């Protein structure tokens, strides 16, 4: 069994509490807050009114409110954005990043914990702290959100050993799920182009939320022609916003260029071929389609 654990120091934890917390979130996020219970968590995003990507996060029920697991580089802006939407809502928004930490354990280890179920988003408590099987893709493992003071005792009780976080990034990138540098996507593509539907992050049956109109229109009118896809660099390097060509036709643009690169690709274009070697200004690369993305 894989007993490795990754301490995700690049993640932050926010907490939303108060009488109106549930309705407040339901009116904002791309997923349905009704899915979030003591035993079920969800992946969701906050979009612009035009449906463009702003923030993504994992949402868990905790005590009388909701924990939000988000990327640390986005957390301050996300926190401020939530407060802008707050207006007269009776909610309290807290940044608990100095007190709470996110740790990732393997899928196999999660299933070995008493009470675990093989269901994406399934959530259980270990010593009162939530562990959720990643709602995007169970192969990413499970996430433990815990007070920093309790972390190492819980890891000891779970017989977990700390591993290099880059191994988690590698796994996420190989699965085709963006592990970091989310700010490089901000306002550059629609949420639905981020594959949020396939990652269980959009609910097309819920009521209105910020960006819902364009998201629904793209889906219902079959207007989705571009997707965010991972890049495998063969040699050299990529430049951010560098355009990608094949047969002298532009088929996409690099959005994340460093470490774990991604591009927005016109995947329906006849000039796009997966796993083909493409040339950049300073190197060569392949674009691959994750197994879970059936296109």
* Major sheet summary line: 6 strands, mixed
CATH architecture of the domain at 8-157: 2-Layer Sandwich
Distance between the termini: 33 Å
Question: What is the average of the pLDDT values?
Answer: 96
Describe the protein's architecture and organization:
With 295 residues, the protein is an alpha+beta fold. It has a domain at 8-157: Gyrase A, domain 2. The chain has helices at residues 21-26, 72-86, 107-112, 148-157, 165-175, 212-220; strands spanning 4-7, 11-17, 42-47, 53-62, 65-71, 92-95, 100-105, 123-126, 129-133, 142-147, 161-162, 227-237, 243-246, 249-256, 262-265, 277-280, 282-287. The chain is globular. The two termini are 33 Å apart.
Give me a quick take on this structure:
With 295 residues, the chain is an alpha+beta fold. It has helices at residues 21-26, 72-86, 107-112, 148-157, 165-175, 212-220, and strands spanning 4-7, 11-17, 42-47, 53-62, 65-71, 92-95, 100-105, 123-126, 129-133, 142-147, 161-162, 227-237, 243-246, 249-256, 262-265, 277-280, 282-287. It has a 6-stranded mixed β-sheet, with helices on both faces.
Search tags:
295 residues; alpha+beta; Gyrase A, domain 2; six-stranded antiparallel β-sheet; 6 helices; globular
What's the arrangement of secondary structure elements?
Blueprint: E1 4-7, E2 11-17, H1 21-26, E3 42-47, E4 53-62, E5 65-71, H2 72-86, E6 92-95, E7 100-105, H3 107-112, E8 123-126, E9 129-133, E10 142-147, H4 148-157, E11 161-162, H5 165-175, H6 212-220, E12 227-237, E13 243-246, E14 249-256, E15 262-265, E16 277-280, E17 282-287
Parallel strand pairs: 1-11
Antiparallel strand pairs: 1-7, 2-5, 2-6, 3-4, 4-5, 7-10, 8-9, 9-10, 12-15, 12-17, 13-14, 14-15, 16-17
